[in-house]
Design brief:
The protein is an alpha/beta fold. 36% of the residues lie in helices and 14% in strands. The longest helix has 32 residues.
Length: 305
């Protein structure tokens, strides 16, 4: 387990909503990466959380960028540091929400990763465009209410599964990618520290509940994050040079049905029984596929050795 550093690089007095999972995400990330870190942030909740100048709440350099440019901005920062021969140990981090990563920012992200840019690209996933009004994103899960999937009498909730950013990044032959969950700070920090050991592009997918958009209680953010893990809705795994590894699994006696996770959130309470059952089947199927990928890629590695 990772030692959690005591030093705080995220100060109090920020503008995050009560119970904000993204605030936990930034705090733990900076504890792992330390002061030798520069962050660029596009339009998202974290574009307003630090406060308006001259107020600030991060003890690291911060650059605000356009919604679609996180990957390109990270590339530019890395190139500038290299050109000036500044400390190569500085972590260049693109820190974007799911919309700025999986949708609006995916072209720049794909380009940066394909070029092999030495950066850490982070998607803090609150499963919708929360800063601009809770619109659905490509990473909004099936069944969710958002302001652009407004349910009503037509049952117009989000149709279709989340875009799988881990597999998309793996298809770019990325050296390291991992999922982390704000309910488990030890493994969260451990995976960010591990990411620092690699050169080239790295990708971290953070599970970060949003009480405002998820219609959940602010004091239950960590509980919901725990249920996402225990229900296998959000598996914790890493991909290291193409090899899948489920690094943390819920014990069999701790596994809970997906319904228990869904019903903690107002955005899912409209769902009929048959849709909840379908979501459970989809989660089970995804977990089985993930375990098969783990088995296959590890066996392939052993054969090579």
């Amino acid at each position: 387990m990772a030692d959690i550093p005591e030093e705080e690089l995220m100060n109090s007095g920020h503008n995050a909503c009560p119970g904000c999972g993204a605030a936990h995400a930034m705090r733990y990330m900076l504890k792992a990466l330390g002061k030798k870190t520069t962050i660029n942030i596009p339009a998202c909740c974290w574009a307003v959380i630090p406060g308006v100048y001259p107020s600030r709440n991060l003890e690291t350099p911060l650059l605000y960028t356009a919604f679609e440019t996180t990957g390109a901005s990270s590339s530019g920062i890395r190139a500038a540091l290299d050109a000036k021969d500044i400390d190569e140990d500085i972590n260049v981090v693109g820190f974007a929400g799911d919309g700025g990563t999986a949708d609006i920012g995916i072209q720049a992200l794909s380009g940066a990763v394909e070029r092999g840019t030495d950066t850490i690209q982070v998607m803090y996933d609150n499963e919708a465009y929360m800063n601009t009004g809770i619109q659905r994103s490509g990473v909004t899960p099936e069944g969710a209410w958002t302001t652009t999937t407004p349910v009503g009498s037509e049952g117009d909730w989000k149709k279709g599964p989340k875009k799988d950013m881990m597999d998309i990044m793996e298809s770019h032959d990325i050296p390291y990618a991992a999922t982390v969950n704000i309910a488990y700070p030890d493994s969260f920090i451990e995976k960010f520290k591990k990411a620092m050991e690699f050169d080239g592009p790295r990708f971290i997918h953070i599970y970060a509940p949003c009480p405002t958009g998820w219609r959940s209680k602010p004091d239950e953010t960590v509980k919901i994050a725990e249920l996402a893990f225990k229900s296998k809705v959000f598996p914790l795994y890493e991909i290291e040079n193409g090899v899948y590894n489920v690094y943390k699994e819920p014990k069999e006696e701790n596994v809970v049905p997906v319904k228990e996770y869904l019903m903690k959130q107002g955005r899912f309470r409209h769902l009929p029984k048959e849709v909840v059952e379908k979501i459970q089947e989809d989660v089970d199927r995804y977990w089985e596929r993930l375990k098969k990928k783990e088995k296959f890629t590890k066996e392939e590695l052993y054969e090579e050795e």
